[in-house]
Structures are given as structure tokens and as C-alpha cells.
């Protein structure tokens, strides 16, 4: 039995069955580990090892087993931006207050370690796959799948830290020279971008076009590889990265559109996030019983429902939903009424955010005082939203709020969807050539999707005006989906948006009249230039004997 042990999730039963057939009962074998020899001899076991690479290591408390990014968990990534605050802190406030440091990154402290652990696991599989008894065709697909997963891990590193340490295909072991300075050299942003783009380009043709019984939903297709390539190309062309061209980004997004494989969901905007089989979804993470995520209904609903508040939206975001006339609320001709602020607004507001008077589970939300059931006068008021809002998006009203364990937490987390691709194309094409007809078409398709029906953008917009509209469209269409944190950074406007106070709303009821007053929901928001990138954790720097270069300012 070889000394090299591979840990594999969810394979205890397989190994236990195999172990029970052994004749040498004096040889005690662990039931939570599988030997390398056994792994490489069993194609089913090896493929399970590959598909488990979609998951990362859980490295801190209040973190579900992660995939890429952060996804559904207690404090979501949106609470590190101007979309939300996490009501009970849980190591998020230090980040939005600009207090993060290499010694303390709060909930953002696991990306580096988790990504490199996964990259090593992918490299191990890629190095050894030739020994596994697969057909050449299937081996080709699994190799492409591993390259996609590895590329996505590098994408997470790039978007959070900038230039990454590129490991190539080598699998480093304890017997290697781990003090070699070359092992700790960070590549430039351009080198990192080019490497990931090349990996995705190589992987895409060998991945299947669609999911099937033999390639289950949730595994990467060639559309997923091309969509991630399009997102990366967009980031690369953006001011923070300055490592690509807008024309290349537009072409990458158009390549996904031209597949003619994806379309906008027709079952309603809110229902999209409950529908794993939607034709809008390009790549997603699925959940099931005994492998569910944190139940969103108890995590996000108001205190008056017996829930915890959780990730509570900011007034900053609410104000950016247009009126149903298609105009910003700051436009005096928009029809916006500050004392009746939620009437005649973009339907995506009601689908995404619970506000005073919103319909939710058989009654209206009551964030008003005095006496509102979802205010500080309601039950369990320690969970009352500090902002006056609660998150509606992603919730499934068919799931219970009380005692949801094992019967909720099955919504898909959508990594990439067609609406994002359309907006990626519109942004890149507008920056490359200006607001031509294809830019209008891409944005208006999203605005006029079924159940939203917003007016088309006005004709004659300048490039700068179109830029403003596209950025706002991303803000509302993709709210809470882990885009805003990265968008404001790549556009290099975070020093503006993230220094605006975290606003909420106070609602006072007098008779049948409500009075709405803006308030600061969380004090001390601060963003400095260094915060465009996360610091590399101090422990990682020290483990390299201080050979890894820290990001500037930390």
C-alpha cells in the first residue's frame, strides 16, 4: 500500500464495501481514505475524485463547503459591497470598514489557501489520469474538465489578489525543494490572464456541448468554458487589469451568444433562481438532501417571521432601481414619490428585496414603527434589519422558515447565466465601438425579459451615457450574485461607491400614512486604494519564508 493518501468526499461507502472483501483482516485500513493505488485502478472512483474538485475545502466557521467564489452561506459576498450589510457582522464589517489586514481578512481569508489546494488536486489528477482505465474519448473530456476547474480556481485568485503564482502541471510533495525562490514568484496580471484564457480555450472543444445522463447537470460544458472566458476577457479589458482589449472581450461574449444554445428564462425573473433546468443557466452548483446549502428562508426573511435577517440590502442599491418609466429616481420626470417609494418601480426590485408593505408569505412586510412586526417592535428584534430591508431574491416560499433543516437549501447557485453574457457583450462592444445597434439589442433583451418588461433604453445615448446605463443594468439584474464587488473594482470606481455611507431607511407609521427617512445603517465604511486587491494572508507569506510578494499597501 503506497504512502500517498488521497482524501475524497462522499466515498466512505465505496471504500468500506471494497475493504470488506479483503481476506487479510489483520490489515486495518482507514475507511475515510483511499490509497493512490486503489484510486488509479478504479475509473468510477477516479471520476468521483474529479467531480469532487468542483468543491473546495471548508477552512473557516460559518462557511458551507464552498465551490467557486463564496455562494450561498451565512454572510454572502454581497455583504462586502454596496449591495448589503450582514446584519450580525460575522467578520464582514471589518472589511467594509477598511480594517482588513494580512492577519485578519474576515470572511475573505480563505480564497488563497482553498484555491491552491484545489489547483494541486487538479494537477494530481491531470498527472495521473493516463494510468486510469478510461476510453481515450472519456479521458479527453475529464482532462478538459480538470483544466476548466483549475482555470476557475486561478480566476478566483486573479480577481481577488491580482497576479497569481502559476504552478503549471507540477504536483509538489513534501520531498521537493520547497525553499526554491522560483516557487513563490507571482506572475503579472497579464501573464495570469493569458494563462487562464489559454487553459479555457484548450478545454472548451473537449467538453460536451450539453449536460446529459452521462454528464450530469452541474458539470462544466463547453458553453461554461466559453462563458468564463468571456467574463475573464471583460475583466482583462477593464481599467484595473489593463491586460486585454474591449474588442477581444466583445468577441468572446459573442461566441457564447452565437452558440444559439442559451436564452433568457421565460418563467419569471424570481423563479429563475429556483429552476436548475433553466435554459438561461450556463453553469451552476446543485444541492440535494444531505448536501444542501444554508436555508435561505430562515437566513434572510424578517424577524417577524421568526427568521434571522441575514444579508440586508442597502438603500444605496434600492435607489438604483429605475421607475417603471425607465428613468432614474433622481430624474424629476420619473414619477418617483419619496413617500410612496416602492410603487411603479422596476419589477426586479420586488423580486429581489423585501421592503415595507411588500407581500411575503401571506401578509405584508411591516418594517415601520411603532408596532411593525418586522421592526424593532416585533418578535426576536435582535434580528431586525439595520437597513430596513431584507433579501427576497433566491428565497423559495415552498420551503419552511421554521425548522428548515434537511427540507430546504436546495436552490441552485448560478455561477454564469445568459443575461450576464448579454451584458458582458454590451459593455465590451460599447467600449470598443460605441453604442451601436447590437449594444442596444443586448441590453434591451435583458430589460424586457419576461416578467420584467422595462422600457427599452432611449435612442441617441452617447458612449458615456450608455456606459452608465449598462453599469446600472448589471447592478440590478445581477444583484447579490457576486458581481458588484468585482465590477466596482475593475471599473476603478470603488473609491467612490464604497466610500458612500451604508444607507438604510426608517419608516414611521402615523394612522394610514408612512414617512420614510434615510439613515446611516452602518457607520465607518472606508475604502482605500490598497483595497482594490485583498491582502495575501500573513500565514501564507510566512510559510514561504517571506518570499511571496505582498500586495501594495499591506
Q: What would you call the shape?
A: globular
Strand order of the largest sheet: 1-2
Query: For the CA atoms, what is the radius of gyration?
Result: 24 Å
Number of strands: 12
Amino-to-carboxy terminus distance: 46 Å
| Uncertain runs | 1-23
Structural class: mainly alpha
Mean pLDDT rating: 94
Layout of SSEs?
Elements: E1 5-6, H1 12-20, E2 34-35, H2 36-41, H3 43-51, E3 84-86, H4 93-96, H5 111-128, H6 136-161, H7 189-203, H8 222-237, H9 246-257, H10 269-272, E4 281-285, H11 296-300, E5 311-313, H12 315-318, H13 347-352, E6 353-354, E7 359-360, E8 363-364, E9 390-391, E10 413-417, H14 418-433, H15 437-447, H16 463-477, H17 484-490, H18 494-497, E11 502-510, E12 513-522, H19 538-543
Antiparallel strand pairs: 1-2, 3-5, 4-10, 6-9, 7-8, 11-12
Helix pairs in contact: 5-6, 6-7, 6-8, 7-8, 8-9, 8-14, 9-14, 14-15, 14-16
Tell me what the structure shows.
The protein has 554 residues and is mainly alpha-helical. It has helices at 12-20, 36-41, 43-51, 93-96, 111-128, 136-161, 189-203, 222-237, 246-257, 269-272, 296-300, 315-318, 347-352, 418-433, 437-447, 463-477, 484-490, 494-497, 538-543; strands at 5-6, 34-35, 84-86, 281-285, 311-313, 353-354, 359-360, 363-364, 390-391, 413-417, 502-510, 513-522. A two-stranded antiparallel ribbon has the order 1-2. Strands 3-5 form a two-stranded antiparallel ribbon. A hairpin with a 2-residue loop joins strand 11 and strand 12 (513-522). Helix 8 (222-237) packs antiparallel against helix 9 and helix 9 packs antiparallel against helix 14. It is globular.
Amino acid at each position: 500500500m503506497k504512502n500517498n493518501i488521497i482524501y475524497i468526499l462522499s466515498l466512505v461507502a465505496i471504500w468500506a464495501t471494497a475493504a470488506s472483501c479483503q481476506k487479510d483482516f489483520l490489515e486495518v485500513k482507514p475507511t475515510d481514505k483511499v490509497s493512490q493505488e486503489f484510486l488509479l485502478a478504479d475509473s468510477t472512483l477516479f471520476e468521483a475524485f474529479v467531480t469532487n474538485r468542483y468543491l473546495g475545502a471548508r477552512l473557516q466557521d460559518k462557511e458551507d463547503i464552498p465551490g467557486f467564489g463564496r455562494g450561498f452561506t451565512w454572510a454572502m459576498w454581497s455583504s462586502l459591497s454596496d449591495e448589503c450589510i450582514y446584519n450580525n457582522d460575522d467578520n464582514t464589517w471589518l472589511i467594509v470598514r477598511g480594517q482588513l489586514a494580512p492577519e485578519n481578512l474576515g470572511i475573505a481569508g480563505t480564497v488563497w489557501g482553498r484555491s491552491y489546494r484545489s489547483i494541486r488536486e487538479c494537477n494530481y489528477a491531470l498527472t495521473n489520469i493516463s494510468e486510469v482505465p478510461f476510453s481515450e474519448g472519456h479521458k479527453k473530456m475529464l482532462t478538459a474538465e480538470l483544466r476548466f476547474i483549475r482555470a476557475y480556481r486561478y480566476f478566483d485568485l486573479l480577481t481577488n489578489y491580482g497576479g497569481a503564482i502559476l504552478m503549471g502541471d507540477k504536483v509538489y510533495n513534501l520531498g521537493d525543494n520547497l525553499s526554491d525562490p522560483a516557487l513563490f514568484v507571482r506572475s503579472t496580471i497579464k501573464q495570469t490572464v493569458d494563462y487562464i484564457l489559454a487553459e479555457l480555450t484548450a478545454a472548451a472543444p473537449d467538453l460536451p456541448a450539453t449536460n446529459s445522463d452521462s454528464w450530469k447537470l452541474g458539470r462544466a460544458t463547453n458553453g461554461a468554458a466559453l462563458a468564463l472566458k468571456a467574463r475573464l476577457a471583460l475583466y482583462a479589458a477593464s481599467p484595473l487589469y489593463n491586460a486585454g482589449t474591449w474588442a477581444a472581450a466583445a468577441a468572446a461574449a459573442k461566441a457564447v451568444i452565437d452558440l444559439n444554445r442559451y436564452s433568457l428564462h421565460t418563467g419569471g425573473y424570481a423563479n429563475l433562481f429556483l429552476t436548475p433546468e433553466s435554459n438561461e443557466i450556463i453553469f451552476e452548483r446543485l444541492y440535494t438532501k444531505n448536501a444542501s446549502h444554508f436555508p435561505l428562508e430562515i437566513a434572510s426573511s424578517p424577524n417577524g417571521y421568526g427568521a434571522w435577517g441575514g444579508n440586508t440590502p442597502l438603500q444605496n442599491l434600492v435607489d438604483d432601481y429605475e421607475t417603471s418609466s425607465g428613468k432614474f429616481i433622481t430624474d424629476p420626470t420619473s414619477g418617483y414619490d419619496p413617500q410612496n417609494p416602492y410603487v411603479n418601480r422596476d419589477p426586479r426590485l420586488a423580486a429581489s428585496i423585501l421592503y415595507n408593505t411588500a407581500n411575503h408569505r401571506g401578509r405584508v412586510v411591516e418594517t415601520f414603527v411603532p408596532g411593525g412586526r418586522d421592526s424593532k417592535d416585533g418578535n426576536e428584534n435582535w434580528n431586525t434589519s439595520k437597513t430596513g430591508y431584507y433579501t427576497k431574491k433566491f428565497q423559495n416560499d415552498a420551503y419552511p422558515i421554521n425548522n428548515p433543516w434537511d427540507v430546504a437549501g436546495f436552490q441552485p447557485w448560478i455561477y454564469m447565466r445568459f443575461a450576464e453574457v448579454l451584458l458582458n457583450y454590451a459593455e465590451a462592444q460599447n467600449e470598443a465601438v460605441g453604442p451601436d445597434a447590437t449594444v442596444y439589442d443586448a441590453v434591451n433583451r435583458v430589460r424586457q425579459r419576461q416578467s420584467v418588461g422595462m422600457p427599452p433604453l432611449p435612442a441617441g445615448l452617447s458612449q458615456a451615457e450608455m456606459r452608465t446605463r449598462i453599469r446600472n443594468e448589471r447592478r440590478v439584474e445581477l444583484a447579490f450574485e457576486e458581481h458588484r464587488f468585482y465590477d466596482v473594482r475593475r471599473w476603478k470606481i470603488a473609491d467612490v461607491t464604497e466610500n458612500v455611507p451604508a444607507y438604510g431607511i426608517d419608516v414611521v407609521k402615523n394612522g394610514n400614512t408612512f414617512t420614510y427617512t434615510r439613515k446611516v445603517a452602518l457607520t465607518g465604511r472606508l475604502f482605500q486604494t490598497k483595497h482594490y486587491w485583498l491582502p495575501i494572508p500573513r500565514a501564507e507569506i510566512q510559510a514561504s519564508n517571506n518570499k511571496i510578494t505582498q500586495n501594495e499597501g499591506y
